[in-house]
Amino acid sequence: MRRRILSTMTAILLCTAADAAGRPDQIEINSRAVSVVVVDGLRFRDLDRDGRLTPYEDWRRSPAARAEDLLGRMTLAEKAGAVMHGNLLGIGNAIGASTTGYDLDATRALILDKKVTTFITRLAVTPQVMAEQNNAVQAIAEQGRLGIPVMISTDPRNHFQAVVGASVGGRGYSRWPEPLGFAALRDPAMMRRFADIARVEYRATGIHQALSPQADLLTEPRWSRGTATFGASPDLARQMVEAYVTGFQGGSGGAGRDGVLATVKHWVAYGATPDGWDGHNYYGRHARVDAASFARHVEPFTGAFAANVGAVMPTYSIVHGAAVDGKPIEAVGAGFNRALLTDLLRGTYRFSGLIVSDWAITNDCATACSAPTAASPQRPADIAMPWGVERLSRLQRFAKGMNAGLDQFGGVAEPDLIVEAVERKLIAEDRLDGSVRRILIAKFALGLFDNPFVDPAAAATIVNPAAVEAESRRVQAAAQVLLKDPRSLLPIKAGTRVYLHGVDTQVARAAGLVPVADAALAQVALVRIDTPFERLHPDHFFGSRQHEGRLDFRTGSADLAAIRSLPAGLPVVAALFLDRPAVLGPMNEAASAILANFGVSDEALLASVTGAAPPRGRLPFEMPSSMAAVVAQDPAVPDDTRTPLYPFGAGIVAAR
Q: Which residues, listed in sequence order, are joined to residue 323 by a DSSP beta bridge?
């Protein structure tokens, strides 16, 4: 099945080859509005519509040579548009998370008037509709003066959680454990296998850039973004990040015609956040490290560099306590921090790809952003993260970001300010040219100038075929961690009467169990539970959606009450979703067995419970023994709570 999927994708995105005489073979080209020119019996898209083969239209040339030719033909306005990474607006949804499609009139204005040619998609539609909608965007771009195609990015859409600003509901894409689950498996080959499959799904539906992986360390247990990390170990995270990037880009040599440009994030120390507050929010704009902990937070990114990652996204945070070349860094968000971007990333680590800012760092953070209230909550229009540069104008922020080392500005479409900054000599035009050159090289390498369109009918069959769905369920099951089972309840034998809470009875029945509605008749109970959380900042846009605060099961917990309400003596298997390291406390005693997961379907859960697919995971972080221990730990240091209940690496794994 894997060969069939990959061969189908190869047919869609043919690479340049050569015949026996050394003449290049024709690659697949595809147009909607532009004509084709024929030279030496080969076909090329006439993107500038001059009836001749312009150098940047010639797919026989290198991406660098084509980019240099095109750069010389672009106006200042077109260059300014290229360094925007805008939002594809959706029908009926202010942030683009539409279940219908794009607002194509608004998209047309962004592409043809503002010259923006890179966008994020947040559509939650089927693969076929996604392909159709992305084709419609490319058809608009084809009408531009130079026919510059659009590069389309996405937050992760192959997992279980969907939180605005972090991940997307996939609707038809294959579904795998959260990255924490892959870390629990300790299997870089499986990590690469997932990324390879997701790469094919992305390209089949017209997506070219992954705004992932998240190389941040989960050093603060309360942090809401931990689920998309690879846990607390710098070495383990480094291995998984390298495998992830290699799979998405189609190899370790950078993203080519069948690859997806990976964007490792968030450079650097995003997870070292006091109290677990997230950097999307005004109250979470600070991170704190010392020299040793800063080095640990850098380490996972070296895996991405080893795999020649195509892009890096800086953190929102103002990182306190870090130094570069012996000098303390400026107290501004990383997107404005020259020491972090130019001196450390470009200099020390020799990164030569794209640096794209996180979203909305040039916007103004007014009162509705910094201090919203119940009467005036923060709305999408109020989203802004200009941390450390609040007193600068938007024009000055664009100039400071680009001079610090940014190539693209995420979530905004204000190219006029780039034009003004160049005209006022706040940004040198050759500095702008350097960014545009890198963007164009990436687009040429991905093959977008030759064939930006995809086949919607093929997308419907390429994305998540039956064999891939079965494989993803096996991985979901294997990635679970059996924390305790002193009575050897697992596996549960076929025919066992089971009381279910949060689990589909039909799935349990299909797995050979006998669901009963009355717990008094059950031989065992299977109860899904979640890591506790609070919503401590409900008036903030992101704070109202993120899991913050406490991690402990305590009196009043609905999950704990559900288990305690069961008949005395009834064995209970608790299936615990760990999006953060839970403090089990009384739950550890109330549950007879605890099977932790990082995103698992009922089918995969039941496969583990019945022994068809035993869990093989080990904890990618420690689980603290109390909230007092959480409060006392250093948010920048991995796994440093006193006497953890379950240490890093815990897990009962059956002998194979």
A: 328
